[in-house]
Amino acid sequence: MGSRQIAEKSLSILRSLPRISLGNIRDNPGSKITQKRGRGQHGGDKHGAGNKGGGQRQNYMRLGYETGNNPFYLRVPHENYYKGHHHRRQYPPLSLKELQLTIDKNRVDITKPIDIASLVRSGVYNFNPDQKHYGINLTDEGADIFQAKLNIEVQWASEEVIAAIEKNGGVITTAYYDPHSLFLLKNPKKFFETGQAIPRRMIPPSDAIEYYTNPETRGYLADPEQISQARLKLAQKYGYQLNNIQNDSIYNMLCERKDPRQIFFGLEPGWVINLKDECILKPKDEKLLSFYAI
Amino acid sequence: MTSLLVNSFKKLCLTSISRSTRVYSTGNSPTVHVSHNLSVVQKGWKILPQYTKPREVWIENLDTIDENKLGLFQLHPLVFAASPRIDIIHRNVIWQRKVRWVSWAHTKTRAEVRGGGRKPWPQKGLGRARHGSIRSPLWRGGGIAHGPRSGKTHFFMLPFHVRIHGLTSTLSAKLAQDDLHIVKDLELPTNEPEYLLDLIEKRNWGPSVLIVDENDVVPRNIAVATDSIQHINIMPVYGLNVYSMLKHDTLILTLSAAERIEERILNHLHSIDSNKSTAFKLDQV
Amino acid sequence: MATVWRSRCAFAPLLVGKSVRILNNTIDLGSKLIPKPLSVTLCAKDYSSYGKSPFVDKITERYDYEIIKNPPEWEYVKRLLPLDIIPKVTPKDNYPSGWIPPKEEAQNLPYFIRRTKHHEIPIYLNLTYRGTRKVTKIKKLDGDIWLLNHEIKKYLNSTQQRYVETRVHELARFIEVKGDFVTVLKEWAYSKGF
Asked: What pLDDT was estimated at residue B284?
């Protein structure tokens, strides 16, 4: 009998009850607390200060206020540690452990290069470009359990993370995207539906150029020759055997990179994507071609 | 009187056209092939039912007054055997009532009632109570304090998943109380309203019936037949809602509508919902 | 029409070098309104006031595009479109992240804990009263919830060496356990195969 099966139990009780209609439903008792207008004596007119006396009349000054003196807490000059923090670039973190979990659950496809668009699509990562978020900071939590061999592009990575990925035969690149490109990467479908041409990616600002041209951080603007040297150096430092990419069966996938002016893999700036008719509009005009070639 | 006239006119005019439209509308009976030996429709659900068994319902017909069982149809337990939470159904109903309700009740304050600018009598010396205006709320014919002011909206949004749970709860409750029927299609042999009334009477469906089809184009006969009956209504799948399901005694789904409802709700229950689970803001869109 | 164009012209001197760039680095393909006189003698014209700006007399399709049906690059576009539903987990030899797949035999038990859509066990810790009240909540239950409650109590009694209070909600299908037993209960659920 289904009486001990809770899925069946409530439904079988319903069979012997009157038909549920607009007239006989109600909310759980006690679920709604209605705010009532105060009535009677002092219906909200004392503002909670009580009647007369200190409660109403006494001036309790704010904490630290010394009636006009330069207060103690302001007397000591100090260096504002967080000065201008709202103007700095922020990289919301994603740990290697979360990335591994995402891979284990088939939410990202590691047979294809991974970038921020595929991680946002998987639902594991979210960020807001309008709040100075500039992309993924891949953190080293779970570096010891990480086992995936992939081609990943993030916006910030530490040395441990780079070592953990290269140890498994993978490739990592750090790449800069301007906020406008990040909006496109966050919701590509929304952008394609607007019918605009894919813009170019902007070059990094002056204070980020050093990071993104540095082979140590696998910057996307660094010299490939120096990057392979840095890979070897890091392998020696952390003591692992570096995978020879040239002989790899997935060599083509591991070597796939975006152009510094490119936002999406495989789609060039200037193209218009028509989702409805499943076609791509490519510019032929000389002026456009020269504009997007820069 | 006029409705009678209109009906007779329709009968005269539309019988000649109905045949051609019927041919056009036979397209929405996809899955089950009509056979008199009973068959269970096996369905390729993307999300397989776990533990709880799928519900099985008869596929019925509308082309005869007597009921013909055309086969068995499986319904997904996540949609049609969810726990019937009356409180969630109630919240959905309240939301549907309030979401489009603008209250136009209006009263005048003491400032808006005509007159009352002058102090009726001096403050002191008359032995009377002090008053500053003859339109004060204390006076007869004075303004109303804290009265309703017009143009008050009661708009709010119920969280997305409460809305989904409201739909599954209501569908499950309807199925459990034998108030949900699946029909193969909406083909009627005639466009007489009496035929439909007889059919409902015979099958003991509640007097009021909500018919849900996949699209908003239904066969001509049923559209004409239900046109003059106030308590039999037709609705497309995208209009399905808790309030209408509860307002009508019986819910009739076509095969395609049932599949579509299942597919949509299962999709919502198993999709990445970062945009759906955020609270509704007035300036979103 | 003319009004729109006039207002665009007001910015023309600013866009001399980059006449195709509008905002945010994108190309405005919708702007078919290109003035005739703009290309020839841009510098000589005075656009400083509204009255002096020119009228549009000819509208031309400016940019040439080729439209490619069924392009080979469509595979890259498909990669970017959002997931319809969260995909199923294909069985693998090992899961380095420590995720444990549900077992098939759990379906035969008299009770059942359904995985969430993210393929996780729905056991959570609820902290209330500024973290002083800890309640472990087991959701998405099915089958004989009272037997499950009894088993949980017995299991916690034996592992924790004390009596543990629980609360069963039949209609909403959850069990609440007083105290923080998330890891203990998750281990128990994994051992049962949920």
From this structure: 62
